[in-house]
Amino acid sequence: MQEKTLQAIADSRDALTELTRELIRFPTVNPPGEAYTPCAEFIGERLKTSGFAIEYIRGEGTPGDNDTFPRTNVVARREGKRNGPCVHFNSHIDVVEAGDGWTVDPFDGVVRDGRIYGRGACDMKGGLAASIIAVETFLMHNSDYTGAIEISGTVDEESGGFGGVAHLASKGYFSKPRVDHVIIPEPLNKDRVCLGHRGVWWAEIETKGEIAHGSMPFLGDCAVRHMGALLHEFEQTLFPALDRKQTRMPVVPEGARRSTMNINSIHGGQTDDYTGLPSPNVPDRCKLTIDRRFLLEEAITDVKDEVIDILNGLKETRPNFDYEIRDIMEVMPLMTEKDTPVASAVASGIREIFDREPDYVISPGTYDQKHIARLGHLYDCVAYGPGILDLAHRPDEWIGIDDMVQSAQVMALALGQLLSEG
């Protein structure tokens, strides 16, 4: 049966290609959350033909959810002949904006030289398609399986996952006894098992000033200059300190094996939605958003204190410096052990298909495994899927068709091992 399943997946190359192209053609751009419902319904209708029971769960009340852009998730479940473990394949259906620089239509699914191009091809509609083909083919040759199989298409991963996996996890969709093992087909390369991710702290910092006429700035207090002083301190003290921090986590790429912080956005003064000429005002507020990625060896309190200490130091030494800081999101670093059932099963599939040991890696950024762990309290979860992470969110994003076929074979082998062991 195993040999027949692997051969059938290889023979499904054209079907896998077409399914990926169909998924890419749903412009599920986040924000604002376009085409979520038709994409979820497409997945549901397809899996229904293979005997799956389908649920559509809207992330009501989550960020961005409204009647124009509902956060529609799909969960498909198929019970086996006997009770046993449940293996769940979870993929997010949202993609980032296309942006400029494309040489092909980003939502057409162009096939060229063994690759499929399009926004979301790599991150992660190619992985979703591979998991669907893997499961459908497995069922054709293993109808007498024990346990249950689930496939989900969830939303908003690119903006934190709160309307998708977080919402479902809070309702028990990613907890025992419903689910035992989770594979997330994120693009971490076909011969790698991704065990987790670095931590993240997002925060907004606001410096305060006093409004005045721009021709007499000495009568006011410029909040943008105060923010400039903060940025200077970051450059002089914080960024060099972060560069010196290293981790034992096998994070890829190599540059992410240290602590990092990105300045996501900065804004102060006149907004960009005015018409005509700007008014001559001294800005009394300036806001900065930071994206701090931290390591397993760091405590979240220390991560925050590094920034707060700099702010308090400026408050003591810089005249009239005042600030507010607001947490946006925090997620702890996460690393699944190599010997857990799901990591072992995926690793076994990689050995079978590629005849070599897998690489074990950690993602530089977070993904939806964070919610499965913190809300579902389910830790037997890894990311495994086709695609090269470096291509995600870039112009002319693509995924290799052969890579998808081979990853689907690994997924089918892992599925069979997890169900049989159960």
SSE arrangement:
Blueprint: H1 2-11, H2 13-24, H3 36-48, E1 53-58, E2 72-79, E3 82-92, E4 110-112, E5 115-117, H4 121-141, E6 146-154, H5 165-170, E7 181-184, E8 192-197, E9 199-208, H6 223-243, E10 260-268, E11 285-294, H7 300-317, E12 323-331, E13 334-335, H8 341-354, E14 359-363, H9 369-374, E15 381-383, E16 398-400, H10 401-421
Helix pairs in contact: 1-4, 1-10, 2-4, 4-10, 6-7, 8-10
GO molecular function: hydrolase activity; metal ion binding
Cofactor: Zn(2+); Co(2+)
Protein name: Acetylornithine deacetylase/succinyl-diaminopimelate desuccinylase family protein
Structure, described:
Residues 196-313 form the Peptidase M20 dimerisation domain. It comes from Oricola cellulosilytica. Its cofactor is Zn(2+); Co(2+). This protein is an alpha/beta fold. It has two domains: 2-197 and 333-421, 3-Layer(aba) Sandwich (Aminopeptidase); 199-331, Alpha-Beta Plaits. The protein is built from ten helices and 16 strands. The strands form four sheets. Strands 1-2-6-3-7-15 form a six-stranded mixed sheet. It has a four-stranded antiparallel sheet with strand order 10-11-9-12, with helices on one face. Strands 4-5-16 form a three-stranded antiparallel sheet. A hairpin with a 2-residue loop joins strand 4 and strand 5. Helix 1 (2-11) crosses helix 4 (121-141) and helix 2 packs across helix 4 (121-141). The relative contact order is 0.19. The model has no long low-confidence stretch (mean pLDDT 96).
